[in-house]
């Protein structure tokens, strides 16, 4: 069986995107988890942080499923949904569109490019909560956990727990220590001792008004170039801590580039608009039979898009 795919990325958080709108690909969850482990291997296969499946939906224009490189299935992916929405908008010829995820429906629209020839999409993230069953072990009284220490992780850092359908803890730091982040990320995802379903762990640093830097240990992946919902969480926290203002676009820099986030507050409700790239790297096919991927080949490379994104990143480094 020949299967077409697109290698793509949002802020260099990269994915293998498979169009299954016609529901012709019928794989069990076990097979999909196996696929993710095999195809995301950067040594022996395509290499990616996860695989994205574009599927039909009965409640929205399309549905997204994502499997991390370790085979786990997260609830949501902010960078992934932009990439998937790009393909969905092309296929369905509709803009904006509604994407169904495991926990909500999200509106995604194609917008003006954030840099020349950098295709850009905005995901409106409204399923934001500071109270979640994922945080019961650190907040058993089900109160918002904002800017407090988690003794089992660190006696020095303060964290805020926020859910975008997937669980995040975020800490404001003066200095980014990647080794410490990796250590805390692993601790937060061991055996449900702190978080029953694990959590994404992020550090963010305030650069200047409307500008922050974020790095994330992503559950099921490890430290990534970027995590869309983590950047949204950090931008929201920067407003709660009065470093930035609600209703103002924030430039969120990361290892893989930059996105823009617009945190909003209405009474006790919060939302974040996440605007960033959805870059196609290449199209390809894979030959799959009897549970084995036999051959992988590239059919089209998007050189202009790759170059445009690299120019954007270079401009950030030079500024």
What key attributes describe this structure?
18-stranded mixed beta sheet; Diaminopimelate Epimerase, Chain A, domain 1; amino-acid biosynthesis; diaminopimelate epimerase; 2 domains; EC 5.1.1.7; diaminopimelate epimerase activity; alpha+beta
Note the gap between the termini: 48 Å
Show unreliable segments.
none
Taking the sheet with the most strands, its summary is: 18 strands, mixed
In DSSP terms, counting alpha (H) and pi (I) runs of 4 or more, how many helices? 5
Number of strands: 18
DSSP strand (E) fraction?
35-45%
**Could you name the CATH class of the largest domain?**
Alpha Beta
CATH topology grouping of the largest domain: Diaminopimelate Epimerase, Chain A, domain 1
Mean pLDDT: 95
> Which architecture of the largest domain per CATH?
Roll
Under CATH, the homologous superfamily of the largest domain reads Diaminopimelate Epimerase, Chain A, domain 1
Helix content estimate: 10-25%
Shape verdict? globular
H/E topology pattern: EEHEEHEEEEEEHEEEHEEEEEH
Rg over C-alpha atoms, rounded to the nearest angstrom: 19 Å
Tally of separate domains: 2
Secondary-structure-based class equals alpha+beta
Q: Can you walk through the features of this model?
A:
Helices cover 21% and strands 41% of the residues. It has 319 residues and is an alpha+beta fold. A hairpin with a 6-residue loop joins β3 and β4 (62-68). The longest helix has 16 residues, at 303-318. Keywords: Amino-acid biosynthesis, Isomerase, Lysine biosynthesis. Belongs to the diaminopimelate epimerase family. GO terms for molecular function: diaminopimelate epimerase activity.
């Amino acid at each position: 069986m020949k299967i077409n795919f697109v290698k793509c990325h949002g802020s260099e958080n990269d994915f293998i995107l498979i169009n299954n709108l016609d529901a012709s690909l019928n794989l069990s969850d076990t097979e999909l988890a196996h696929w993710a482990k095999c195809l995301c291997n950067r040594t022996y296969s395509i290499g990616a942080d996860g695989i994205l499946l574009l599927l039909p939906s009965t409640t929205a224009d399309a549905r997204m499923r994502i499997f991390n490189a370790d085979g786990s299935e997260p609830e949501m992916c902010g960078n992934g949904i932009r990439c998937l929405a790009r393909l969905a908008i092309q296929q369905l010829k509709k803009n904006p569109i509604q994407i169904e995820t495991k926990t909500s429906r999200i509106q995604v629209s194609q917008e003006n490019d954030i840099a020349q020839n950098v295709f850009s999409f905005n995901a409106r993230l409204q399923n934001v909560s500071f109270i979640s069953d994922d945080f019961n072990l650190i907040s058993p009284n089900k109160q918002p956990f904002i800017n407090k220490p988690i003794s089992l992780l660190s006696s020095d850092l303060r964290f805020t727990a926020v859910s975008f359908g997937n669980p995040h803890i975020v800490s404001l730091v003066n200095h980014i220590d990647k080794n410490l982040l990796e250590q805390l990320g692993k601790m937060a995802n061991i055996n449900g001792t702190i978080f029953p379903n694990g959590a994404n762990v992020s550090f963010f640093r305030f650069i200047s008004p409307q500008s922050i830097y974020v790095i994330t240990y992503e559950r099921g992946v490890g430290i990534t170039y970027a995590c869309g919902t983590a950047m949204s969480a950090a931008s929201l926290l920067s407003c709660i801590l009065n470093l930035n203002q609600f209703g103002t676009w924030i430039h969120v820099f990361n290892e893989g580039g930059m996105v823009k986030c617009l945190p909003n507050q209405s009474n006790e409700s919060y939302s974040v608009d996440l605007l960033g790239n959805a870059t196609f790297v290449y199209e390809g096919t894979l030959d799959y039979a009897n549970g084995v991927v036999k051959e992988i080949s590239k059919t089209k490379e998007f050189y202009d898009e790759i170059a445009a994104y690299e120019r954007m990143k270079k401009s950030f480094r030079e500024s």
